[in-house]
Amino acid sequence: MRAFRFVTVDVFTERRFGGNPLAVFPDARGLSGVEMQALAAEFNLSETTFVLPPDGPHNSARVRIFNRTEEMPFAGHPNVGTAFVLGREDEEAPRAYRFEEPAGLVEVTLERDAGGRVVGADVAAPQPLSLGVPVAAATVAACAGLPEAAVLQGVHPPREASVGNPFVIAEVAPEALSQAAPDLAAFQRARAEHPGMGGRFALYLHARGEGAMLRARMFAPLSGTWEDAATGSAASTLAALLLSAGGGAEGRWQVSQGVEMGRASVLAISARRLADGIRATVGGRCVPVLRGEAVL
To answer: Please, what are the domains in the chain?
Structure first.
């Protein structure tokens, strides 16, 4: 039998059993892709990560990210949590890691407390903002179990967007956000209506709070995540989308997510205009929870 060490952490929180849980395999050498997918399904978390030696000599690691049903090109909370785990285990950890992922190189900067201990990380999304197809408000409303009037056109209409991992992003009325509930049949219809999305239809809803505060919920039942406690890749996409729609050179916001699940999460997001487009970041803190071995 073969044994592979894992660590679980709660991401985008400073409180154990809050935030979004993540399982990290710090040394996944010897695991096949099929085994990684099976382990991710066994953990039954929104994502599980597997760390491998990098292909490029100037990069830190190759990181493979799996949800319950498939490998992902990029995701936010897995990068924050993986960097946190590696940084905690390496007394000589660098200021930042460069992770090789299918969406591109991901730079993750470690956050340390006053004593120098790693407490979190900030992730730079691997791609500039790209805009996909618009999505009808009626489709969004049906997927979220809301009346169509609750879906706002606001600063941006509902549409697919990405900085490395695509989501359908829509603004809803603040009072409607907590009432949302995913409708699996509606998600299946939406996927069929949008074949260009590659069989994936993940919905990220947000509502305005006070000032730079935002609230959000994410539903992806077609990939096994009925609701996500914190979605860094969607939140960073939202930052880029808000900057794109609102103008300006840069912007910063704070997102509250996971409240309705009892796993409150806080995500710091930012975006700025660069020569190649609008680039976004997402960051937050982490708490270690479990350690163990998977025996295969």
So the answer is: 3-119+284-295 (3.10.310.10), 130-283 (3.10.310.10)
